[in-house]
Design a protein that fits this description.
This protein has 642 residues and is mainly α. It has a domain at 2-429. Helix content is 70%, strand content 1%. It is built from 33 helices and two strands. It has helices at residues 2-13, 23-35, 47-52, 63-66, 72-85, 90-116, 122-125, 129-142, 147-151, 156-176, 193-207, 216-228, 232-238, 240-248, 251-255, 258-263, 281-300, 317-340, 342-355, 376-398, 403-431, 435-445, 450-462, 466-479, 484-496, 500-513, 518-530, 534-546, 554-570, 574-587, 592-604, 608-621, 626-638, and strands at residues 180-181, 188-189. Strands 1-2 form a two-stranded antiparallel sheet. Strand 1 (180-181) and strand 2 (188-189) form a beta hairpin. The longest helix is centred in the middle third of the chain and has 29 residues, at 403-431.
């Protein structure tokens, strides 16, 4: 019985005018062509937090440390990238991102094709299942809205989550098609346990990529009810073990700390969850009506795209009511469709369920990012492609157009749409070729984005253009006077461009707003020193050295005391300099520069034996330090031990 069933399934798969086994090559070719330019991209934005400055990914031999973050699966891939390419060959990171995206495109093709060949849809879509699935997968793969998830390196978290989400659904589909009805009982049976296990594993891995995966078990159950089992009760009855496994995958979110981080209310530094106080849950939910409408617009017309929208909170009725009417109407239509037209209802419900964790009432610092549409876009694309296919066939029938002509027209339309989207993606990828270009692009599209000016200034500093960086930071402070980060960056740029007098009030204002910023306190001392205010510089350095707390690590305090020693040493107070240098090496025993300065100061007080100890310490830390070697030899001569 099972062999006959599978043979009938395969026969119906191949009834279409196109074979399906070679079609994935078209997806790979189109996706590779669209994203070839992404290999020239650089690290931007949060890449520096999660990759460049992420100590967890530095040593793959300490696997528990690598997996200690809230996205352990993503961090593991980053650690593998770092082990093979370091931070210099950024192209290696992009290759992984593109590969993940192409695999997701292939999986989407398989899901759509098998869904159209399922029992409820086979009569209507059996012959066109492969070309419709190919069209949907091609459009989704090359759509410009996907560039942020693919070309922005750290957003592999989104694309990997999307891949595992799709693999979970694909595994359930393969598992479900192995079940056949048993006469007189209404029960289902089958032996596709392997695909069920694969679905559970993929679901768990997805949970280790991003919390958006939390909706996967619900979407799977809805799919099962719509296309496989026919009802929720039958789905749970026949595949209860599968759903127990999928529900168990939620445990990964607790194990990694994601669930606790979202639900906690006392984490002062949180940017996500109920601890974040920059926006209330109600404000966030009301703002998301407009965000969802923007997502829909970008899905239909992906221009202009922007890395960082920094949208304000929607507060007025004019900002909230119109998009709320649109979204609530779509939600209502989705609920009705789930009852009357379950297949279309499934697509609508999937769109809202996947966006639920980021577009509901859970506060997130940034209310909108394009990468959040990575997987929801698939629901929209499939809906439009399936609807377009049915409309084309109806028009052809009404106009008595032959099937061959209809097929050629459809082919031309698909080529035009996919080609236009692919060209748009290729051009969008050029923006990511340099950090300065990325942030200038953001500023063109969001001229009031203070954060964009901050990052532009940092990119210009890294590129050596300090005057332009100072101008960018000035604009950031003008747009957001409350940003102490922008103010300190401005002060640093002014100091480095010889405008220390202008830097001083910026440091002072930043420290008034954030007294715990020890580095700003140290730099204030340097600014005082640069304009000849030696006593003020001394006080600033001493204050920095005395600061305590998590934002005043021993190394930074040691640098502050080193500056105290240098300051008083220049004024002739050698004993004061010695005391300050002692504090520095006490706080940071490996501080090579402080050991050398202390040894030199001790030599000036004829304390040669103690000075030699510190010169020896310098040479132990850096055997090639010739200045320390010569100072040590001179001290030995003074002791009569040449």
């Amino acid at each position: 019985m099972r062999r006959i069933h599978r043979a009938e399934y395969r026969t119906s798969e191949n009834d279409g005018p196109f074979g399906h086994r070679l079609l994935p090559l078209l997806i790979l070719a189109a996706g590779a062509a669209a994203y070839a330019g992404s290999l020239h991209g650089v690290f931007v934005f949060d890449d520096y937090i999660h990759i460049v400055h992420n100590e967890r990914i530095r040593d793959l031999s300490h696997l528990p440390a690598v997996l200690a973050g809230q996205r352990p699966v993503v961090d593991l891939t980053l650690a593998l990238n770092y082990a093979s390419a370091g931070l210099e060959r950024v192209a290696n990171y992009h290759v992984v991102n593109v590969a993940v995206h192409l695999l997701a495109g292939l999986t989407l093709f398989g899901i759509v094709r098998r869904t159209l060949l399922s029992e409820p849809l086979r009569a209507r879509f059996g012959r066109s299942a492969a070309p419709v699935a190919l069209t949907a997968a091609l459009i989704w793969t090359v759509h410009p809205l996907q560039t942020q998830s693919v070309t922005y390196v750290i957003q592999r978290a989104e694309s990997m989550m999307g891949l595992f989400y799709l693999l979970t659904l694909y595994g359930v589909i393969r598992c479900g098609t192995g079940f056949q009805p048993v006469k007189d009982t209404g029960k289902l049976r089958g032996s596709h346990w392997f695909w069920g296990l694969a679905a559970v594993v993929a679901c768990a891995l997805g949970m280790g990529c991003k919390a958006v995966m939390i909706s996967a078990p619900m979407v799977v159950l809805l799919y099962d009810r719509t296309f496989l089992a026919g009802s929720f009760r039958q789905a749970l009855r026949c595949r209860y073990a599968l759903y127990i496994g999928l529900a168990a995958a939620w445990g990964v979110l607790w194990w990694s700390g994601v669930a606790g981080g979202v639900l906690r209310t006392e984490n002062a530094g949180a940017h996500v969850g109920f601890s974040y106080k920059g926006i209330t849950p109600i404000e966030y939910a009301l703002t998301q009506f407009g965000v969802l409408v923007d997502y829909l617009k970008l899905s239909l017309w992906p221009h202009p795209l922007c890395l960082d929208y920094s949208l304000p909170i929607a507060r007025t009725l004019d900002e909230i009511a119109p998009p709320a009417v649109v979204i609530l109407a779509l939600v209502t239509l989705t609920i009705l469709a789930l009852v009357r037209r379950p297949a279309m209802g499934f697509l609508g419900a999937t769109f809202f369920l996947i966006l639920g964790p980021t577009s509901s009432f859970i506060p997130i610092k940034d209310v909108m990012f394009e990468h959040r549409m990575y997987l929801p876009l698939a629901s929209l694309v499939v809906a439009f492609v399936v609807g377009g296919d049915r409309m084309m066939r109806r028009l052809a029938f009404a106009a008595s157009i032959r099937e061959g002509t209809q097929r050629r027209v459809s082919f031309a339309v698909v080529v035009a749409v996919v080609g236009a989207l692919g060209v748009g993606t290729a051009f969008r990828n050029r923006t990511y070729a340099g950090a300065v270009g990325v942030w200038r692009d953001v500023i063109v599209k969001r001229p009031d984005n203070a954060r964009a000016y901050e990052h532009l200034g940092t990119a210009l500093i890294n590129g050596g253009d300090k005057p332009a960086a100072a101008a960018a930071f000035e604009q950031a402070v003008r747009l957001n006077p409350d940003s102490t980060v922008a103010r300190v960056d401005l002060a640093n740029a002014l100091l480095e461009t010889g405008r220390a007098e202008e830097a001083i009030p910026q440091y002072q204002e930043a420290l008034r707003r954030d007294p715990a910023d020890i580095q700003a306190q140290i730099n204030l001392g340097h600014a005082f020193d640069a304009v000849g205010r030696a006593f003020d510089a001394f006080q600033a350095f001493v204050h920095a050295g005395e600061m305590e707390g998590p934002r005043a690590p021993p190394q930074t305090r040691a640098r502050a005391y080193f500056n105290v020693g240098s300051s008083v040493g220049r004024s002739g107070n050698i004993d004061g300099a010695i005391n300050a240098y002692r504090e520095a090496v006490l706080l940071w025993p490996e501080y090579e520069k402080a050991h050398f300065a202390l040894g030199s100061a001790l030599s000036m007080r004829s304390k040669y034996a103690e000075a030699i100890e510190h010169f020896d310490r310098v040479l132990a830390l850096n055997p090639n330090d010739e200045a320390a070697r010569r100072a040590r030899e001179e001290a030995l001569v003074r002791l009569g031990r040449p």
